[in-house]
Specification:
By secondary structure, this protein is α/β, with parallel strands linked by helices. The protein contains 16 helices and 13 strands. The strands form four sheets. A seven-stranded parallel sheet has the order 1-6-7-10-11-12-13. Strands 2-3 form a two-stranded antiparallel ribbon.
């Protein structure tokens, strides 16, 4: 089977075009954690799987939940259902999810011997992720009005950043103060540096394998970069994310593969983040989108940045705030008048308590208002 037969063209490529700062008929939209606990059908599938890890390690279940939000909403991209901690789990740290609790590692990195023993994992231990990527790509194929086989929307692969993974690997779980990993950072930076170097190699290999399996864009989640002090962020987070970006494949099946980098709390370092070579910089809700665009110019596209808590407000308020984000991004800046370079998203992941009908109001508002803006430009 040829690559063309296996991977047909996209019916909706707005997301990829926006990532590459090309003109789009509307502002594309997807949501971080769009496949998740706010959807009753997700919870039903998780119950069938028996546990979160049972869900995440099954390509069939991962495909099912990845597609669930696309059945409800006309989103412009799918994102692989997985977890950012699959890589350290494959390193032998013993990942588990207790009911009602967050992730926990049985063997956190707390001493010199544990750090010395750390290795880049065998990617075969993550085969279930790559199988899921391939299965989702197949499941996204449909037939258009002319009877042609097309992909519905692009598929995004992802990983945690080297620093964010290190936080969990040292703390052993989520943290409110990052006391253990920051103690290592200041007291034994040599140990943390070794962890980060191995993580950077592992994350790059992991994302490249997702691209080989069919991911059409990839995202690096630096979820905890914003907890670092200035100087420490550049040394222990940004530099290793840069290494990952530099090692990624940027083309597959003859098409560009955009790279998105998102640092929660990264607003103070926006220009530095924009300079590491990614195609898109994600912004949280604390950043003014228009000012961010003025800072980065046409170097990168921007993704974001609605406060997820807006989705608890009534649908008319959701629509109003969505329009405000689009208005903040501003008018076209291309010489040909094209509208480019914005991917609408939340400023962080969607809450499990979000009413699904409020998401429908958001999607409708983004698509409708962004089309109206283009007509009026």
């Amino acid at each position: 089977m040829s690559a063309t037969t296996a991977r047909p063209p996209l019916a909706n490529d707005c997301f990829l075009r926006a990532c590459l700062r090309q003109s789009t008929p509307h502002t594309p939209l997807w949501l971080m954690r769009q496949a998740g606990r706010y959807l009753p059908e997700y919870n039903a599938t998780r119950a069938k799987a028996g546990s979160f890890m049972g869900l995440a390690t099954s390509p069939d279940f991962a495909t099912e939940v990845t597609l669930q939000p696309l059945e409800r909403y006309p989103l412009d991209a799918a994102i692989l259902f997985s977890d950012i901690l699959t890589v350290p789990d494959a390193m032998g740290l013993g990942l588990s999810f207790a009911q009602g609790e967050g992730p926990r590692f049985a063997h956190p990195l707390r001493d010199e011997a544990a750090v010395a023993a750390l290795r880049v994992p065998d990617l075969d231990r993550l085969r279930y992720v790559f199988d899921a990527v391939a299965a989702i790509r197949r499941a996204l194929v449909t037939t258009d009005a002319q009877g042609r086989r097309v992909g519905r929307v692009p598929l995004i692969g992802f990983s945690g950043s080297p620093w964010t993974l290190a936080c969990y690997m040292v703390e052993g779980a989520g943290s409110d103060d990052y006391r253990l990993v920051k103690t290592m950072l200041y007291a034994r930076p040599d140990l943390l540096t070794r962890i980060l170097e191995i993580n950077a190699q592992a994350v790059a290999a992991y994302l490249n394998a997702q691209i080989d399996a069919g991911a059409q864009a990839v995202m690096v989640f630096d979820s905890w970069g914003g907890v670092l002090a200035d100087g420490a962020f550049q040394r222990f987070s940004l530099d290793y994310t840069r290494r990952v970006v530099a090692a990624l494949k940027r083309e597959a099946d003859g098409q560009p593969v955009p790279v998105i980098v998102f640092t929660k709390g990264g607003g103070p370092w926006l220009q530095e983040i924009a300079a590491i070579g990614a195609d898109v910089v994600g912004l949280d809700w604390t950043v003014n989108l228009g000012r961010a665009r003025a800072q980065v110019g046409d170097r990168v596209a921007l993704q974001g940045n609605l406060d997820p808590n807006v989705l608890f407000a009534p649908p008319e308020a959701v629509a109003r705030e969505a329009r405000a984000v689009l208005d903040s991004f501003g008018p076209p800046q291309r010489a040909d008048g094209g509208w480019d370079g914005h991917v609408f998203n939340l400023g962080h992941g969607i809450s499990q308590y979000t009413p699904p009908e409020h998401v429908a109001a958001l999607v409708e508002a983004v698509h409708t208002h962004s089309r109206a803006l283009r007509r009026g430009a």
